[in-house]
Amino acid sequence: MLYEIITNKVLIIPICSWAIAQLLKLILVLIQKRQLDLRYLVISGGMPSSHSALVSALATSVALIEGLGSVAFGISAILALVVMYDAAGVRQSVGKQSVVLNRIIQELRLRRPVTELERDLREFIGHTSFQVIAGGSLGVVVAWLWLAIAGTY
């Protein structure tokens, strides 16, 4: 059973794609800020979108292994669209709202101490369209290369 899980390409390829996206995120932050911040290996948001990389690698793997006409591809493609829309749309809006709420919290802190306002909200939540496209493209390339090298399709 464990062997079947660790050799399941449709499971492993998206996970590797996610890990590559997170590593790229860490490297890009290191280049931009000249500071190693290991939190970028696990946090969401930023360039490239690891969620988009994961779901696009999933959909691409299923398409190449099972075919575009398969039910599994239909499900994975719809899932990918929903996740990428959410990453660029809903979560981006939440990040913008966090900026406004943090300003309000700063104003409240100046007037009186309130223990619930000890910490700022995370503003780095969503993705720009470019970050989602970059993550999605990364997932497609990782899946395609992996399966091409393995000779699976």
Total of helices: 6
- Helix/strand-derived category reads mainly alpha
Helix content: over 70%
Shape: elongated
Mean pLDDT across all amino acids: 84
Count of beta strands: 0
Percent strand equals under 5%
The biggest sheet, with number of strands, parallel, antiparallel or mixed sense and barrel status, is: none
Total number of domains: 1
Low-confidence stretches: none
**Distance N terminus to C terminus?**
24 Å
Query: Radius of gyration over alpha carbons?
Result: 19 Å
Q: What sequence of helices (H) and strands (E) makes up the elements?
A: HHHHHH
Characterization of the model:
It holds the Pfam family DUF212. Keywords: Membrane, Transmembrane, Transmembrane helix. The chain crosses the membrane at residues 12-31, 71-88, 129-149. InterPro entries: DUF212 (IPR003832). The chain has helices at residues 2-6, 9-33, 50-66, 71-88, 90-111, 129-150. It is built from six helices and no strands. The two termini are 24 Å apart. Helix 4 runs parallel beside helix 5 (90-111). The protein has 153 residues and is mostly helical. It has one domain (2-89, 126-150). The mean pLDDT is 84.
Task: Quickly list its features.
mainly alpha; DUF212; 6 helices; 153 residues; Divergent PAP2 family protein; transmembrane; transmembrane helix; 0% strand; membrane
